[in-house]
Amino acid sequence: MSTTATNVDPQELAKFSELAHRWWDPESEFRPLHQINPLRLDWIDQLASIKGKRVVDVGCGGGILAESMARKGADVLGIDLADKPLKVAQLHAMEGGVANLAYRSVAAEALAAEQPAQFDVVTCMEMLEHVPDPSSIVRACTQMVKPGGWVFFSTINRNPKSFLFAIVGAEYILKLLPKGTHEFARFIQPAELARWCREAGLSTQQMKGMEYNPITQRYWLSGDTSVNYLVACRKPA
């Protein structure tokens, strides 16, 4: 098991920190996050009913999902190790008067050791493919959630189609994301993520694919997990 200090890639932090000031611009590099956020939020809320729940968003970045969950009535803590996006998130929440939302610069493993079984819901979206040891994050998320609570992940499958769509298509042809956002070797197959969840003590409840039509610029959830996909798990009560 890796130590908390090592499960972070400084280059990944630098990459997202450089773009921090653009996080809340819906026409910036983060446009896809703004577009998929309502889909993710509704899916999470349908399953876990987040109003009044204590939620931690792991790898929250500039706070797009964290703030939207707080606006739905959840008591949210967003955590990340990239300081610039965190400051942007804090400022945006302050300007928007979102009170039931806090941010901290802390590793998932460190928070799990400090606050085990303290959260009703744990979300970790678009983050596992950016860390050296994703299984350690899965274990930390499991540790943080209360028995009977929900854990949500989203990441990218690893296969020729995902290379074509998520890297060649999204970064080079459609320019939806900055070049170099993703590294193919770090993509995670659903069977791998399901195994880590099982080994950590989570039971997988639902797996959904996320698809995109470049012509209509529309995203939707489907049964096709070949590129982007989301996983909902529960910790046994």
UniProtKB/TrEMBL annotation:
Pfam families: Methyltransf_23. It catalyses: a 3-demethylubiquinol + S-adenosyl-L-methionine = a ubiquinol + S-adenosyl-L-homocysteine + H(+); a 3-(all-trans-polyprenyl)benzene-1,2-diol + S-adenosyl-L-methionine = a 2-methoxy-6-(all-trans-polyprenyl)phenol + S-adenosyl-L-homocysteine + H(+). The keyword Transferase applies. Its EC number is 2.1.1.222, 2.1.1.64. It comes from the Bacteria. The keyword ATP-binding does not apply. S-adenosyl-L-methionine binds at residues 40, 59, 80, 125. Pathway: Cofactor biosynthesis; ubiquinone biosynthesis. Belongs to the methyltransferase superfamily. UbiG/COQ3 family. This is Ubiquinone biosynthesis O-methyltransferase. It comes from Aquabacterium soli.
